# Entry
Amino acid sequence: MTGAGARSAPLPLLVPALVALAFLVIPLAGLILRAPWGSFWEILHGSQAGEALKLSLWTSSVATAISLVVGVPLAWVLARTDFPGLRLVRALVTLPLVLPPVVGGVALLLVFGRNGLVGQYLDQWFGITIPFSPTAVVMAETFVAMPFLVVTVEGALRSADRGFEEAAATLGARRMTVFRRVTLPLVMPSLGAGAVLCWARALGEFGATITFAGSFPGRTQTMPIAVYYALETDPDAAILLSLVLLLVSVIVLVTLRDKWLRGGSTP
Amino acid sequence: MSVPELGLVADAVVTRGAFTLRAEVTAAPGEVLAVLGPNGSGKSTLLAAIAGLTPLAGGRISLGGVTLDDADSGTFVEAAQRPVGFVFQSYRLFPHLSVLDNVAFSPRARGLGRAQARAVAAGWLRRLGLADLARRRPADLSGGQAQRVALGRALAGDPELLLLDEPLSALDARTRLEVQAELKRHLTDFAGPCLLVTHDPLEALVLADRLLVLEHGRVVQEGTPAEVARRPATEYVARLVGLNLYAGTADGARVVLEGGGSFVVPDHDERGEVLVALRPSAVVVSTSQPDVSSVRNTWPATITGLTLLTDRVRLDLEGEPSALVDVTPAAVAELGLDAGQRVWLSAKATELEVYGQTHPAEPLNAFDG
# Structure
C-alpha cells in the first residue's frame, strides 16, 4: 500500500482494508514474537521436531520428483494432443486442487488400503502394505501437489510459441528431440515455478497425509502433523516448527515472484 | 520445366478452414522462384506444405524424384525427414541456444555428435561472416545478423531445397539492401531449388529467376521478372509493377474496355478478351483538348488525388478509363494541377501493351480495380 494510494482511499474502503491486513499479518507477527528463540537448536535437535522436519523434506522432495517425471508428460499430453474426453481428463487433473485433502486421503485409503481395490492384491500377492508408511506419505503428498505442477506447465506449453517447434522439425529434429531440446528449455522457467509450487504444497500437506499415512513419529509424522500434536504437549516446539514452515513459505514466495514474472507472463 | 523431376514438383491442394490453396509449382535445381502475392493468398501455406508442416489435402509434392507427400497414396514424409531448409519470416532462432548451437542444431539433429555438429556450424558462421557472434544469444543480435544466422541454420543441415518466407521483411530499409545483396550471393551458390516468398516486388525482381504470383490460393501468373513486369495478369500484379491495367475486348486495332472507354492499339490482330497495360509515365496530361489523331488516344478525366513520389508526382485520375499518371513536379506547377480539376489525357497507341489473358481461371474483373 503506497502512501499516496492510502491517503486518497475513501474511509469505507480504507477501514475494512486495514482490518483485513491486520487479520492476515497479526497472527504471523504473534508467531514470531512468541518464538522460543533462546532454545532454538535444542528443540530442533532434542524433540521429534528434527525427525519430522527430515521426513517432511525428503517426502516432499520425492513427491516433487515423481510429479516431474510423470506430471510433465501429462502436461504435454493435455497441451499438445487432442482426443475425445480431453476436457474431462483436464477437469480430473485439476480436481485435487479444489478437493478437500482429507477426501483425497480417504480415497487413497479405499484404493490402497489393506482391503482396498488395489491394496488387497498388493497385500496378498506381494505382502506390501502401503497405508501408514512413508510411502503413503509420499503418495498422499503427490496426489495433492502434482496438479499444481501439471497446471502450471500445461499453461506454459499452451502459451509457448509453436513456431520454435516447427523450426526444429524443419531442421531435422524428431518429436522427442524437439521436446527435449526446444520445448522443455523454453518452458523451463514455468517448470521451475511449478516444481517449487508443487514442493511447497507437498511440504504443507496435512489432511490427506494424516488420513492415509497416520501420525507415527519418525515414520509418517510430517511437520504439519507434528505441529498439530506438539501444540498439546510441547507448545514451544510447535511454534518453532511453524516458524520453519513460515520461513520456507517466504522463500518459496520470493522465488516464485521472480519465476512467475519471467516465465508466466511471457512465453 | 523440361526436366522437372530433378527439382521441386508440387501440385498442392491444402485446406485451412474455409481457405483452399490449389497451386502447381515447379522449381529446377539452382533456380530461385519468387512467390508473390497479397496477404492471405496462400504463400506461407504453400511453404508449410512443402516443408511438411501442413499435410496436403490433395495432389502431390516431390523433390528430386522422391515423393514427399501424396494425398492419393497416403505417402507423407515427416518434416524432420525432408531435406528442406526453412528460413522463417521472424527467423524463429532458438532463444535458449547460442548462435553456434542454433546453427549446429540441424547437423546434430540429423545425426552428428555435438563436437562435429559445432565444427560444421563454425564453418557456416565463417562463410557467412558471423564467426564473431558464435557465442551470442539470438536476443543480442541485430535484425540483419539474425537474418544471416537463420540462413546459416537452414543451410547447415545441407538441404536439397531452400524455403525462405519473407526473409527480409523484418529488416529496416537500409539493412535490407545490404542483406539482400548478400542473400543473392548465397542463393546463387545454393545448388538446389529455392522458393522465396515475398510481397516486395523489388526483392523478387532482384533475387529471383522466375516469379509466381498467388492470389486467393491460386496461381494467377508465372514467368520471368521481365515478362511479369511487362504484362501483368491481374490488377494486383499491375499495381506491384506500377502499371495501369485494363481488361477489354479487342477487335484488331480497337479495344473496348470493360470499365468504359476504348483504346486505339497497334493492330496485331488480337481478338476477344485481352488485357492492356499502360505505363503511368507514358500518359501526357494537358489542360485543353489535344489534337485528335488516329495513333493517339485522348480522353477527359478528373484529378482525384496527387501523391509526391521521389522525383515525380503521381496523379490519380477518374475517367473512362481511370488511370494513374506520373508527371514532373514542374508540370504540376506549370499546369496548375490540383484535385477536382478536369484535364485531358493522351497516350500513344504504341505505348499500349495488348495481350491475351494467360490465366483465364481468374478473370481480371474478379478484382476490384
Summary: Chain B is about 25% helix and 35% strand. Chain B has two domains: 4-93+141-230, 242-283+293-357.
